Amino acid sequence: MVTRSTIMDTNAFRPGDPTGGLPPRTAELVDRRSGVLGSAYRLFYREPVHLVRGSGAHVFDADGNDYLDVYNNVASVGHAHPRVVAAIAEQAAALNTHTRYLHERIVDYSEALLGTMPDEVDRVMYLCTGSEANDLAVRVARAHTGGTGVIVSAEAYHGNTELTSALSPALGSAQELALDVRTVPAPDPYRTPVAAEDLGRWFAEQVAQQVADLERRGVRVAAFLADSIFSSDGVFPDPAGAAGFLAPAIEVVRRAGGVFIADEVQPGFGRTGDAMWGFARHGVVPEIVTLGKPMAAGIPVSALAAQTDVLASFGDHIPYFNTYGGNPVSMAAAQAVLDVLQEDKLQDHAADVGARMLAALREAAADHPRVGDVRGAGLYVGVDMVADPETKAPDVAAALDVVEALRERRILTSVCGPGNVLKLRPPLVFDDQDLDRLIDGFTDALTALGH
After folding, report:
1. Three-state SS string across 360-377, please?
2. What is the pLDDT of residues 367-377, one digit of tens each?
3. Are 59 and 91 in the same domain?
4. Of 34, 100, 150, 152, which has the fewest CB atoms closer than 10 Å, so is most exposed?
5. Could you tell me which residues belong to the region Disordered (predicted)?
6. Containing domain of residue 352, as a range?
């Protein structure tokens, strides 16, 4: 039986898909890739894109064609940012080694990073991927609380280690969730039958039901693990009238003895425009925060930041060592990214351009009933495609047709949620000229889709 993963398969070219209709050079490379990388890998689009270079919010294929990247949050300050490239090269030419030797870079960066966090979050550990950061975060939460239960959202993706895969429903039915994991529906104000101001109470009730279910089975809750913009579920920032809607759910978890792990791989580093960190938009202070590769514009590094007493429950008993987590080259890249974010005021830029992006997309979609909702915060926007505006039934086919129409116009993005939501999250240097190009392409794609 063929199983499907919403996050991996919805907009995918899979090994074994026919290559006969592809350009000869593309087909040859796809066949070579499939021959050595195995069946688990996926490519994007019906006709895969062969990229060789990037700059800012743009990438270029092997034929020199310019594509607008409206998907890559990892290249946070832009592809091949000169300052990041220079920092990597300079440190790589001097030394790259592990964290069991003293080195200034990891200390300097840690002080700078923690300076952007709430005062209570005052310790940090380093790893190489967001998956590892979330894996460690759950281990820390379990050590601190004595519980094992974890609550996640229904289409969450938190990583690909054995532990985090079992916390990631978006990976599909072939990946079983752990017995002590429970899911809650995403806080979707477009479909949830409650007023915006009641969204927080409704979501807290969903979490409370799962806490109670765990307790009935003798399982104590350890953590609520969430990406505060619910990016894999379909992009759900707080709607008007529901600012801070996560706070009541987090309080439910804390009363049960658990902690809040804020997965900031997607909403962090100023992307939402309102705040440096997604959790700050909800007026909450997490016990644990996890960060991923956007912190170094794609260089493999991630982090777990935590409150001292929470981290001590693990660290005072179990020594931890990640060979190249926090190595000097990665720290140089991360420091350069943080410097660019702060000095170029990219959080403010995300707020300004993101607001215009949201308004322009809504205007372009106003006469197209297949667009059910356009929502977002800063440079993170979801476009919800529906089969019928009355039933609000998700339309995956329409979303994929729009994604492919954009790709034909050399604008790159993908989908999330059940597969019907366009996920727009460009590098933070995305500007008004890029926005004009996106809106022109989006308008053309909707026209091609028809009514």
Report:
1. HHHHHHCCCCCEEEEEEC
2. 999 999 999 99
3. no
4. 100
5. 1-23
6. 49-77+346-449
SS3 144: helix
Question: What was the pLDDT predicted at 2?
Answer: 44
Exposed e or buried b for every residue in 262-276, given b needs 16+ CB within 10 A? Answer: bbbbbbbbbbbbbbb
Amino acid at 408: E
Q: What is the pLDDT of residues 19-67, one digit of tens each?
A: 878 889 888 998 888 888 888 888 888 889 999 999 999 999 999 999 9
Concatenate the DSSP letters of all residues of 388-446 into one string. Answer: ETTTTEE-HHHHHHHHHHHHHTTEE-EEETTTTEEEE---TT--HHHHHHHHHHHHHHH
Q: Which of 343, 359, 374 is the last residue of a domain?
A: 343
Whether the Cβ atoms of residue 106 and residue 449 lie closer than 8 Å to each other? no
Tokens of 45: 């689009």
Spatial separation of the C-alpha atoms in residues 64 and 43, rounded to whole Å: 20
Portion of the chain with pLDDT greater than 90, in percent: 84
DSSP state, 278?
G
Q: What is the pLDDT of residue 1?
A: 37
How far is it, in rounded angstroms, from Cα 342 to Cα 310? Answer: 29
Are the beta carbons of 139 and 314 closer than 8 angstroms? yes
The token pair at 428 is 């933070």
Q: Which residues pair with 182 in a beta bridge?
A: 151
Segments of the chain scoring below 70 in pLDDT? 1-4, 6-8, 451
Structure tokens at 184: 């809650």
Calculate the average pLDDT of the chain: 94
- CA 92 from centre of chain: 28
Under 8 Å CB-to-CB from 296, ≥6 apart: which residues? 84, 330, 333, 334, 337
Instruction: Summarize pLDDT for 100-131 with one digit per residue, the tens.
Output: 999 999 999 999 999 999 999 999 999 999 99
Helix (H) or strand (E) holding 222: strand 221-226
The predicted model scores a pTM of 0.95
Taking the C-alpha atoms of residue 434 and residue 323, their distance in angstroms, rounded to an integer, is: 40
| CA-based end-to-end distance of the chain | 35
Which 3 state secondary structure label does DSSP give 13? Answer: strand
Q: Which helix (H) or strand (E) element contains residue 68?
A: strand 66-69
Residue-by-residue DSSP string for 291-355? E-GGGGTTSS-EEEEEEHHHHHHHHTTS----TTTT-HHHHHHHHHHHHHHHHTTHHHHHHHHHH
Residue 183: which CATH number?
Answer: 3.40.640.10
Which residues contact residue 228 at a Cβ distance below 8 angstroms, ignoring those fewer than 6 apart? 246, 262, 263, 264, 267, 278, 279, 281, 282
pLDDT for 3: 52
